[in-house]
Amino acid sequence: VQLQASGGGLVQAGGSLSLSCAASGNTRSIRAIGWYRQVPGKQREMVAGITNGGSVNYADFVKGRCTISRDNAKNTVYLQMNSLKAEDTAIYYCRADLLYYTDTGEPIVEASWGQGTQVTVSS
Q: In what order do the strands lie in the sheet containing 76-81?
């Protein structure tokens, strides 16, 4: 599975951005897609995730400000971010959790990452 993240940019504090993560390849193997972010020198952290069943979860620092959604027909997951803060500045990555089976029926669990998109919030 290949992931293409887009939608990052420069926005003023209080503004909004919508990120997109488009999946291609063996998309039937995708079980969930999540958004993560990373600031130089810090560990990558989860922002939000959505499962195939539509269950969503959010990190505490974005609850009430972000909405994750998916368009199955387009194999795309979106992250709508509102009320952005300077501390939201980071590179945002999407990740797909994959489950597929070998010819012999062995389950394979993997993760696939997109290339990242920069979000910069000016204060």
A: 2-6, 17-24, 76-81, 66-71
